[in-house]
Amino acid sequence: MKIVTSKSKKAINVILHTQKTFKKENEKKLLKEFGFEAKDGQTLFLQNENTFFLGCEDFENDTLRAVFSTFAKEASKMNFKNYSFKLEDVKNISAIVEGVVLGTYSFDYYKSEKNKDKNIILHLENSSKNFSKLVNDALIVANATNYTRTLVNMAPQEMNPSDLANEAKKLAKTNSLECTILDEKEIEKEKMMSMHAVGRASIHKPRLIHLAYKPKNPSKVVTLVGKGLTYDSGGLSLKPATSMVTMKMDKAGACATLGMIKAISELGLNVEVHTFIGAAENMVDGSAYKPDDILIAKNGVSIEVRNTDAEGRLVLADVLCYAQEKVKSDYIFDFATLTGACMVALGSYTIGVMGHSSKLKHQISSTPSGEFTGSLPFNKHLKKMIKSDVADISNIGNRPYGGAITAALFLDNFIEEKNKNKWLHFDIAGPAYTESPWDCNVFGATGASVRLMSKFIKNISKEEI
Length: 465
Ligand code: BES
Ligand code: ZN
Ligand code: ZN
Fold this sequence. Notes:
Blueprint: E1 2-4, E2 12-17, H1 25-33, E3 43-46, E4 51-55, H2 61-77, E5 82-86, H3 93-103, E6 121-125, H4 131-153, H5 161-174, E7 178-182, H6 184-189, H7 193-199, E8 207-213, E9 220-232, H8 241-244, H9 252-267, E10 271-282, E11 294-296, E12 302-304, H10 312-326, E13 331-336, H11 340-346, E14 350-355, H12 358-365, E15 372-375, H13 380-384, E16 393-394, H14 403-412, E17 423-427, E18 433-434, E19 444-445, H15 450-461
Parallel strand pairs: 1-6, 2-4, 2-5, 5-6, 9-10, 9-13, 12-16, 13-17, 14-15
Antiparallel strand pairs: 3-4, 7-8, 8-10, 11-12, 14-17, 18-19
The site of ligand BES has 15 residues, from helix 11.
């Protein structure tokens, strides 16, 4: 379904009803005959009235996003081309655009029978002056989210570290971004031996990907770091068969940072953005790293490996060091499908947010984006859990509790003192991938954190320089 801001005379009207607005007596009688009671998510199409009725609980963004997802899916099954909706409040634009664009996404790359594009159009109408710009901006973010979804959904044999690097190069070309790729040798030369160990047993060797969007006089500089495990078998601490399935999604953090820089460059925001991706495949062969190995990260910290399945933090450790060395920025955010423990703590719909700065965490939790975030607190006792008897730190906690936080505290060892309050870690293990649809998410990758960050960076771009 396409969204435009032009009017159409022949279009089917889309009308929203809450229980409160569902009052007009005649209409109510007629609609009730058809069993429509304006319940949340209820739909009714009346051809005689040339109208598609949608029931919703209220006019809140979270409600509208889900309702418009349902509408778009149902309309796609019908044989009409044009729909029109009069939008009363421009604050609902993103929710409606996201509902339609994200709700009708489907990944058919590997299907013999492709989904047919029926070329259905939703005409959004509103009299505000900058309406088409607002719609266009919302479309940019929604399309970038779908771009991330597709990268994550690609099968691992077709999206290995060098494929991911090629995707980044392609994006750099179309969006005029700077692009640097380090191969295995250069990664070794940079002394990123923690990341190197994780990726070296695969025939697809690791890559470090750096993209930069540089407007002329940026008001802020933001660094985005992504975990790009194009496959996580667990390594020698092999995952059980059922847990391994879906582990192509372990690159979701990396793909999200690509979606973010795509959105921000297309929105033309006055913020300099750098994405740093650690792309690697966690596999096994004779050269695989193993429990008991001790790795030296780029900043000299020694790490005792006690579980090769806690590999994401080993990759991020070096990439965080590299990113801080290369760019002086105001914010450092990392995105990773880092721990199953984050899902235990927050459920699978919520992004776990961790870091030292309460102010920054509050800024994130008060960014309305349609995505759920929950803050998980550090404390000095949890910090002791990753102590090692033989090295500076261990790559897993000594007890199975608080695993999302101990993973973040591990990363903290690679954040320079001056950057402590600029850094936040986002664990997207829960919401990055779903096998049952929820909200505007369909089967597979969700593009988690792209909307959140696009919104956040848009907000900071408006702050005083
Ligand atoms: N990629 C996984 C985390 C994950 C699990 C993401 C499920 C999405 C869904 C990560 O590399 C991992 O394996 N973490 C381990 C850490 C443990 C060994 C300390 C985990 O969460 O079990
Ligand atoms: Zn793992
Ligand atoms: Zn992983």
